[in-house]
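Deliverable D5.2: sample structural annotation.
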Amino acid sequence: MFRGVLALAVASVVIFACSVSQAAPPIEAYGRLPALEQVSLSPSGQRYAMIAVAGEARKLIVATIDDKPLLVAGLGAAKVRAIRWAGEDHLLIETSATVTLGMDFSIDREELYGVVAINVATGKLTPIFPPHGGIEPTVLRNYGARLINGQWFGFFGGITMETNHSGDLTLTHTYPDLYRVNLDTGAPDKVASGSEVGAGWLVGPNGEVVARASYDQRQGDWKIMRGGFGGPVLASGNNPFGGVTLEGLGRTPGTLLVNVPKAHATSEEEIPLAGGPAVEVPENKYINEVLLDRRTMTWIGYASGGDVPELNMFDPQIAARVRGTRKAFPNQSVIFTSWSDDFSRIMVFTTGGDDSGTYWLVDIAKGAADPVGHAYPDVPPEAVGPIRMVDWKAADGLELHGVLSLPPDRPAHNLPVVVLPHGGPEARDYPVFDWWAQAFASQGYAVLQPNFRGSSGYGPGFVEAGQGQWGRKMQTDVSDGLAELVKEGVVDPKRACIVGASYGGYAALAGVTVQHGLYRCAVADAGVSDLSGMLTYEYDKRLEASAGTRYWKAFMGPTSGFSEIAPLRLASKADAPILLIHGKDDTVVLYEQSTAMRKALLAAGKTVEFVTMPNEDHWLSREATRIQMLKTAVAFVEKYNPPDPAPAAVVTK
């Protein structure tokens, strides 16, 4: 694959260079943004789009599967979050940018999202909701694209502006209306009005508004109603932590597939459009993500949970194709990223013990899988450290699990260790190539990524067990995992550091302030240090009486207990050197969380280093600052917790 012009554009991501066994790639190899990502098949399976590195630039590339390039466009500094096809000739490119909001808002900055439609045939770019068009130039949600009377339209949530007495457009509210936008002209047409309690719409295959949802942030009441205006209430309930999600049309004609909140859990249910009781689907406890037919919006399958998520399709023929594809990669985790409407071609992403991430195009009729390219081409197979799950029990008996990444060239015995708790905290780590974990492993460290209580992927009870446990059982779950590796003889208990970002950054700070005697150093990227300040920010951002603030209160626990678990208040008790890293454009955990912690540590005479990343957001979206973060973090850990000397390098051809 990738002959001709396309080969010149992406050759750097297709072929691994000659390897040097037992010699770690430079840290930059792990810190760079993926050289290939978001590879997406068109509905026919005859075309695909992707983001690839060409020379030093990241570009959007569209090509046919027989290697004819259709479009190559530079992305500049754009932060592309998703690529979606609308038929064969249009792409929807979703981006985000950190924006200063101004004096009329309770917060200074926010990450706002936009969409650009690209006509692949003509190369024309059409921004959705451009400035000065009567709609605030940001997209609140993408409801998909539909073919109507031979033309493609996208459906988007947009904030309607009003004309004031001076004739100027002004923002009078922040809730969205639903707009239908011509993808070639950008002309918008409002098809449904929103409200303060609006929570989304479901657009049918012909562009009709099938249903809408509402959620009262103050009271926690949710409803599902038929149609875009008026219409009967089909279902209702109350949940303090969030509303209902309209997923698509159900398997049974005349039904909706909805995700219904239930305390800290959700369930998939099918609700009759004609009215009547909802039916909880039998597969509910296994569902991690639902899959829809993009032509009919009907439910066709789901991705199940587990350490290696699986695709489960209702159609027997499609299910057989998925199983056959999975069997073609027996030793890797396989992620199904996109497929043609008839599942005759499937794009998968493999990763695992000797694979830093590879995209493959599977052709069912040919029985062939062709490599498209590598996400991390400078990390060859022999440089990927072994990855496996590890199990342990918490002090209270709760069964816990995590991911262990090991150095690729050393025995798993008495190793220095980096404990790397994930963010969220309602998220989880999988046994896949992780650029941060593998960077440390390449330097000789064992890396533990613990899925502590409160993590997702283990059922609602496991999530609920994290309530009120910040700095408490969520924290000891992490150190209990470290103790298990010590018991197994894998790591040296006297050579441990803790590193993390976001909630993981909080856990890193808590590891040397709330806890003591465990870690030789801590690295916190965008870590929460001041729990009261975090809640105040959430109040300003979402209002105190909102699902978001109620969620954080439930997990952080009573404010009266913050003195026992807030690293900022415990700075004088820090028992190891701390590295703080933070992006100035962070709109999730404010930059001031780290500046305040630095000030408190310096006042207490503690060892602290602080790295500011200009123009960087919460997600490390910029390559230069991502590399800066990684190199700084690795150097800091090596300074205070040196690894064993690396084995001599052996060059192989």
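Annotation notes: The chain has twelve helices and 39 strands. The CA atoms of residues 605 and 618 lie 29 Å apart.
The annotation will be released with the project's public dataset once the embargo ends.
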